[in-house]
Amino acid sequence: MPTTKALSDFLKEQPQNKIGAVAAFIESHIRENWQEILVKENDRLLKAYAEAGDPAYGTYLNLLLLPVHRQLNEAGLRPEPRLPGNFDISREWGRNPDQSDQERWMWSTLHPTEGPPVGTIVTVTYHDHTRFRIPRQPGIIALTETGQQEIVEVLSRMSADFKQALEFSVEYENYLRSLEQ
Fold first, then answer.
1. I need a surface site. Which of 15, 54, 76, 148 has the fewest CB within 10 A?
2. 101-115 pLDDT tens trace
3. Residue 111 forms beta bridges with which residues?
4. C-beta separation of 90 from 105 below 8 A
């Protein structure tokens, strides 16, 4: 599943915009591999969904992004947290009342071996809560912001849905409280 070019090639083409180069590399990798992973790992992913539900999407993203992690490591970049990001602070919303077309935004900040972070990669995952299905290619957003508050502010300006959605940990806490009542 190698992409057309290595991350190092993207970085050479855009030396002044590392986060943009990384985003372009990840987008290229996703474009070339997102459906192939679904086909190749179909039985494994369907089994994971049958046994655990939505965590199967995490399995999918791990399979899809593993080569990206290797390239980041070779380029001296470390995502924190690991791509696609911290599920607890991610935000999700949907287009359909039956939750068959959901969108979750998670992010990771990229740190070089030395120096300040180079930016943040936001991974947009489209998925279905009624069955295992990824209706369209995952998306990537590159941000120069690296602080949690700044990231949330920028994403809130980019998307009214993001702004209105709760962090997963808050949403889950509310759900647990509703069960007690």
1. 15
2. 999 999 999 999 999
3. 78
4. yes
